[in-house]
Amino acid sequence: MGEPMVRSLLKAGFPVTIAAHRNREPLERLVADGAKAVADPPAVAAASSILITCVPDAPQVEEVLFGDNGAAKGLKSGSVAIDMSTISPIASQRFGERLAGSGVDFVDAPVSGGPTRAASGTLTIMVGAKPAVFERVEPVLKAMGTPTLLGGIGMGETVKLVNQVIIASVMIANAEALVFARRAGADLDQVRKVLATATGSNYLLDQWLPKTWLSGTFTGGFAMDLLRKDVAAALDAARATKYAMPLTGLAYQLYTACSAEGDGALDYSAIAKSYERTAGD
Q: What is the DSSP string of 13-29?
């Protein structure tokens, strides 16, 4: 995700400073496109008034910002740190509080759309920030997609997790129903065409599954273990408010079982494999 997002910033005319994490190949490609490479995260922060992070989960955000070689060491008072990872809103609020002590504003801005929409600069960006801070960073975010301010710090992550909770459950419903239909002898192409005009129509059935499970592949897409991580973050946030999410809890268990079968790196439509095993397909 990071590479096409940086490329969108460069196309919009923003100067971008970057540092390698583990893999230097994306960095070298971006340098060829006009980005400036420096040694480490503190050097990126020192060269930037707006710092952007996009990593898998809260522990990685904490490492990038506050670790032994964390960017916070180079952040100047008055700068802004934007985290575009999908993590717990509780963690986002904690990071915001830590940075505020150094005079640094924090924005949580998780995205939806995957690598394809990152490459086209059309990501959906869900933002939690102070209004004045959002106004400052909005032009940068617009270079990567469509940002919407949803509330204070943590609200961007909350809304992103709402999306993840929904897609996690809808994918399971699609897989369960389609295996049921196929086991009964139905033609899945016809089923999809009919459902496209029925109340059961949904984006995953119409757009996602034809490119993954139904085309015989689970490569690319969105890794099941990343979705499991997002669902776990939603459950953690819900527990903090004493809100029960039984359907989401069941979805987490089903994805965990599928991951334990070795499918965690596959697109999350691979949940269909567990239903196919049950059906004897």
A: T---EE--SS-HHHHHH
Q: Please identify which residue in the block is written with the tokens 């059961």.
A: 200
Would the pTM count as exceeding 0.90? yes
- pLDDT band per the 50, 70, 90 thresholds, residue 24: confident
Question: Are residues 107 and 128 in contact, defined by beta-carbon separation less than 8 angstroms?
Answer: yes
Pairing of strands 80-83, 50-53: parallel
Phi, psi of 280 (to 5 degrees): 80, 20
What pLDDT, in 10s, does the model give residues 145-164? 999 999 999 999 999 999 99
Residue ranges of domains in the chain, CATH in brackets: 2-151 (3.40.50.720), 158-279 (1.10.1040.10)
Of 130, 160, 193, 211, which residue is the catalytic one? 160
Give yes or no: 211 in active site.
no
The whole-angstrom separation of Cα 256 and Cα 216 is 22
| Spatial separation of the C-alpha atoms in residues 9 and 38, rounded to whole Å | 17
Q: Is the pLDDT of residue 23 over 90?
A: no
